[in-house]
Each structure stands twice: as C-alpha cells, then as structure tokens.
Amino acid sequence: MQIGIYDSGIGGLSVLREALKRLPDAHYRYYADTDNVPYGNKPKPAVRGYAFEAVGFLHSRGCQALVVACNTATSVAIDDLRASFPLPIIGMEPAVKPAVLAHNHKRVLVLATEMTLKEPKFHNLVARIDGEGIVDYLSMQKLVTFAERFAFEPAAILAYLESRLDGLDRAAYGTVVLGCTHFLYFRPLIRQLFPAGTQIIDGNAGTIQRLLTQVETFPDQPAETGLEFFHSGRPADPEGFQRYLALLDQAEGEPV
Predict the structure, then answer these.
(1) What range does the domain containing 153 cover?
(2) Model confidence pLDDT, tens digit, residues 197-225
(3) Residues annotated as catalytic (active site), given as ranges
(4) Which pick of 22, 181, 188, 234 has the fewest CB atoms within 10 Å?
(5) Residues 6+ apart with CB under 8 A from 3
(6) Does residue 37 sit in the same domain as residue 161?
(7) Residue 240 CB contacts under 8 Å (≥ 6 apart), including other chains
C-alpha cells in the first residue's frame, strides 16, 4: 500500500509519525512544500494551487490514499481536491470537538495559523460544536517560521508565546488545541505557560483513524514498507527530516 502525506513543510511529520505507528506495513511518500512555506499568510488562490500541485505529484507517483497534513491547505482546498482526484483524501481539522466534549466547565483555546482561523470551514466547525460559546482562538503564525528554520531556542519562542497570550486568563482554559501540525514541536513550551492539568491536544490521532477506516476497504495486498521524502516535488535527503522526527520523539513524553 502506498500512502502520500503532504504538508506545507515539516509540520506534517507529526502526522507521518502517527501513521507509521498505526499502519507500519505501508510505503510512505512525504511531500514538504518547502518552496512555498508558510501557507497561513498567503492568498487563498496560491495555497489552492500549491495543494493541487502537491496532490497531483503524489497521485502520479502511485499513492493509493493521501493525507493533507496541513490545516491551512485543508481549509482552503480539501473539497476541490476530493472532487478532482480519484483516491481517498483525508484532511486535517482542529480537534475542537473532543476539546468541547471534555471541557469540564472550562474554556477551550484553539491555536492555529491566520488563514485557518479566517476560513469559513473553521467557523462552521465551531458553530456546529460550540453551543455554549466556550471556544476562543488565537493565531500563532510565527511558530511555523520558527519550526521551518529549526529555531528551537526556548527563550525566543517563550517570548513570542508570552506576547501572543498577553491579556488572556490562562487559568480559564481547560484545553488548548494545537490547530497546526507545526505547533506540536512546541508542545512542551506551550505547556509551561498554562496551569498544571491543562490539556494540550491535537488532531493527529483522529486524522490517522480516518485514514485507517479508508484503507481497511482496500483489497488485501503484500506489505510494501518504505519511506521517501520530497521538497516541493524534488527528492530530498531524509537526514534533515529525521532531525525533526527526533524532536517529536522528545515532545511525545509530554502528557496530553
């Protein structure tokens, strides 16, 4: 089985990591659109074009199912992609539903990119689920840039987080939703800025569960394990990606 995973950059490696754990007997092709990252502050037509180019590339390489591991690309292009390519395409969605269902009389804070928070897809999701009006949201666009530059120096990141969270009553939030796959690299630092017991969750497990549901319907086939990386359609050295995967290993020890 051949599965494609596409992201604007290295954020979707957290989704790939989850897929490798849950579905190890597959061949994965990971497409990082590093020529065009970040997406969150780009015009919508440009992001849609990037998404079509990436999905077209992975489809041409024989991928039988595909994960758009980018909340921004999902919010802008997922419906058009599904209508245009004859394979299951799973998108990302901020984990608002589980956060609201488990809110325990506290508020929910969604952290995401500028475009994800502007798109009707996000606001329709919140409107369907948030009957009590407990969901707040905040752009953390610069975290994408930090991650893509491999800039993980805690002091600079914490200063940025503090500036964005300034004025919020952090004790009011029972759950913080990481609505961008890039943000998972910063889970330990985000946790430092909220009271003990605050849940920090993401949508990766739900996304891969949807992938598993799709591929369960495929005919049985021999295991075909492997892993390929691409920079905007060009073969990439896996070493740089492995550095990021190692960082995700370190962050995984954080309680959710």
Answers:
(1) 96-202
(2) 999 999 999 999 999 999 887 877 767 78
(3) 70, 180
(4) 234
(5) 19, 23, 26, 27, 28, 29, 63, 64, 65, 66, 67, 211, 215
(6) no
(7) none
Strands (E), 141-212: 173-178, 199-202
Q: If you search the block for the tokens 């984990």, which residue do you land on?
A: 95
Longest CA–CA separation in the chain, Å? 55
Q: Residue 228 carries which side chain, given as an amino acid letter? A: E
Rounded to an integer, what distance in angstroms lies between the CA atom of residue 134 and that of residue 105? Answer: 9
Contact status, residue 68 vs residue 81, Cβ threshold 8 Å: yes
In the predicted model, what is the mean pLDDT of residues 60-68? Answer: 96
Pairing mode, if any, of strands 107-112 and 135-139? parallel
Looking at residue 86, its amino acid is: P
What is the total residue count of the chain?
Answer: 256
pLDDT at 56 over 80: yes
Burial of 141-163, coded b for 16+ CB within 10 Å and e otherwise, reads bbbbbbbbeeeeeeeebeebbee
Q: What is the CATH number of the domain that holds 190?
A: 3.40.50.1860
Report pTM.
0.92
**What Å distances lie between residue 181 and 186, 208, 215, CA to CA?**
10, 13, 22
Q: How far is CA 138 from the centre of its chain?
A: 16
- Give the C-alpha separation, 16 to 227, whole Å: 10
For residue 247, give the 3-state DSSP assignment. helix
- Which tokens go with 26? 């597959």
Tokens of 121: 């897809």
